[in-house]
Amino acid sequence: MTVWPGLWVAALFGALLSVSTPAGAATEARALEIVNGQCFICHGVEGEGSSPVFPRLAGQNAEYVARQLRDYKSGRRQSSTMQVLVRELSEADMLALGQYFASRPVYLHHVSDVALAEMGAVLFHQGRQRGDVPACASCHGAQARGSAGLPRLAGQHAQYTERQLKLFNKRERTNDNAVMQDVAVKLSETEIKALAMYLSGLK
Fold first, then answer.
1. pLDDT tens digits, residue range 117-143?
2. What is the C-alpha to C-alpha distance for residues 116 and 68, in angstroms, rounded to an integer?
3. Residue 123 · residue 136 · CB < 8 Å
4. Burial letters for 169-199: b for 16+ Cβ neighbours within 10 Å, e otherwise?
5. Stretch 78-85: mean pLDDT
6. What does R_g of the chain's alpha carbons equal in angstroms?
7. What is this structure's pTM?
8. Residue 71's CB: how many other CB atoms inside 10 A?
9. Which of 175, 203, 197 is nearest to 52 (CA)?
């Protein structure tokens, strides 16, 4: 079938217009209102994070962000600060925040310990040689970008990732996949640091 250039351009223009709908603009405006009102203090307006103790949210998977917010609101994930902040958020608000942070640009960050990161790369892509720790990439993807149900780990602050792995290791974080507890409990402190360092340098 022949597609005339003029018709193709018109179709493309129509598709672009459908993305920038009034509803979409309203959703982003609502997300920005919430971000500028409270999220920016810890996470920054662009989701880069104001400190390595707080997670980078830029580029994080939208549904994963929304699910974590739901878990904070319900108490499945514990944080006295976050539980206060999400108390008044609606389901639409949480989805809007997920979409907003997922759309923020992701930047490549400097790795402070290259040798440690190289150790982490082997563990992430191949797992432990004796086979008791699977490759992280088998769930989180070769580029560590996760999925709707799993977090993007690429580019995350090393300090934050290390902290979360230790919480899984101690079975103190229970709102996510139980497999993480079974894996993390087998990791040494050096392996946790190595994985966190490697992931921090991915984009």
1. 999 999 999 999 888 999 999 999 999
2. 29
3. yes
4. beeebeebeeebbebbeebeeebbbbbbbbb
5. 94
6. 19
7. 0.86
8. 19
9. 197
